[in-house]
Amino acid sequence: MSADGTGGSPLAQPLRLPSAGRSAAYFGLFLLGGVVALAGTLVQAAWFPGGLLLALAGEAGLFVGGAYALGSRGGAVAPVIGWIISVIMLISTRPEGDYLFGPGGSSYLFLLGGILLAVICATLAPGVRSGGRTGGSSARLGK
Does the structure show a pLDDT above 50 at 122? Predict the structure, then answer.
């Protein structure tokens, strides 16, 4: 039996639009992903080894926290999209020649490490499991 009481698989159910509160939460996580990208850009360049680790830890915390807060992988994907869009905008140079990413190795480590963390967190984030519950649901019949 699926989560909504019908007899089919949760994957076979029709898609429904998220509620207004859930949509606002996704949008807030999207914006927060952009803020974390900007803060990480500034922190990783300021204090090299510690700042890079702090920026990546903040990014991973946002992605995993968003997934746990909303109970779906969408909670991790929304800040990932915000982070990626912000980083792409921060990488590009302006006509005045200003940019936030320096040519050093820490910038490349931040970009590659951030992309790797985004993929890992969005893939392994807790999603809706069988039975409609989130988290570690068990498939045993005795439970």
Answer: yes
